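Students often ask why we bother predicting the structure of a whole assembly rather than each chain alone. The short answer is interfaces. A chain on its own may look different once its partners are present, and contacts between molecules only exist in the joint model. In this exercise we take two input lines together and write out one structure for the complete complex. Read the inputs first and try to guess which parts will touch.
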Amino acid sequence: MKNISVDIAVIGGGPAGLAAALEAKEQGAGRVLLLERDGDLGGILQQCIHDGFGLHRFGARLSGTEYAQRYADMVRATDIEIKLDTMVIELTKDRVIYAMNPTDGMMRIECGAVVLAMGCRERTASQVFLYGFRPAGVLTAGSVQRYINMEGYLPGKTAVILGSGDIGLIMARRMTLEGITVKGVYEAAPHLGGLMRNKVQCLDDYNIPLHVGMSVVRVHGKKRVEGVTVAKVGPDFRAIPGTEEFIPCDLLVLAVGLIPENELSRGAQVEMDNKTRGPVLDNNFMTSVPGIFAAGNVAVVFDLVDYVSASGAAAARGAVRFLKGELGGACEYRPVTAGENVNFVVPQRVRTDAEGPTSFYLRVRQPLKKVRLVCEEEGKEIASVRATHAAPPEMMSFEAKLSGGALTVSVTEV
Amino acid sequence: MAQYTCIVCPNSCLITVEEGENGLKITGNQCKRGEAFAKSEHEHPLRMFTSTVKIEGARLPRLSVVTSGEIPKEKLFECQKALNHVVAHAPVSCGDVLVKDFCHTGVDLLASRSMK
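Now the answer. The structure tokens for the assembled complex follow.
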């Protein structure tokens, strides 16, 4: 087994990992190692060929692939060590990574600090209670996206999409353009899951119907999908008898949510947050295990890649501070409380020695109009943001100058 | 009178366009970009075109592409069909022009990633 020692290892070469590796280098870290299990850098952005990325970060409307390319080129212009086709098997709480790839074989990597940037996974059929036979043709939206946009396969001829989040809407357009007939998008909730602009440019432009308050209740076919039964659902998401309808199709696309991929984090005994399903983070984006940081979708599912990159850079700054010994020793934390209308806030806590500007990310519980976001430190307002509206699918962000006290974040209509 | 949902940013403003004697009256937008969008959407809707083409000699069989500017909405399917005749050859750099004046739209077809 190969023994390697690095200053900072970044696990995952998607937008969070790329930004983290780059920032670590820019902050003066010595040996930075980027580990990626795919054959190229970019993570999920490799298959996001549609445009609309990078308005914040680059001030330009880029495709996902262009956004990733810009970061990958910047990373490749440094001496950051990149290992592709590399699977991380285990991370210990003492910051030792066990990984393998076809050229190095097994590796034991001792790290001064680690940034977790593994991203997230999609919810699958069994996680939305679609049981029974497992015919070919039931795929997650991300798998369909990868098949079509990277690997050159069309996974069906006639499709039904379950879930109206942005990924489902984007794939409705993409499949239609590639010649797949999209029968409709079904959404169990009583309202659209994604952004209205995506419904307009992905469904309305192509005359694809959206059915809210309806779900797929049965998949037909034993070897291959032959159709699905859809039905109206009540507030409890159970099918209303008598409303069932059979729709012939050979492809069911599931766009039913994302879950941070934290197997490695759990192995390292990192404390998790039930709300975000990611690690509990502090104002340096450090987890409960000293020297292990997290950023991007592994920490919390973001909806803007610009925020993902920003969180990667923040985690890397934390990692460099840790290497310098600035975050060592015993420390105390104060909580960041989700106040009125707020579902969760990341980071979840701040160190009592925290100082300077820190970015926070949050989601509200329900749609609100004309809002004011207020962050209070020990009862004193330290940051506020006004917005024309707020909604659960759109993450909000703000920056606050900390001085180490407990924070409460609330969003109220004004 | 016509109404359009703006697709420029996540705000998704519902914009009303009325044809008056002094030209178009545009209301409901929160920014200048929304006004421009509503005018274009009313007169001649435009969209960015993104898709993939075949690539030879690369690690993957498909190369993602994007137009250098927006194209008329009604040309989306014609553009998609025209991609069947485009084959890229690795190495390709992000931003390389694959087809000039793609489908007589006045914009070029560009590679939207690099591939070795």
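Check your guess against this: Chain A touches chain B at residues 39-40, 42, 46, 49-51, 55, 61, 63, 65-66, 68-69, 72-73, 148-152, 177-178, 195-201, 205, 388-389, 394 (CB under 8 Å).
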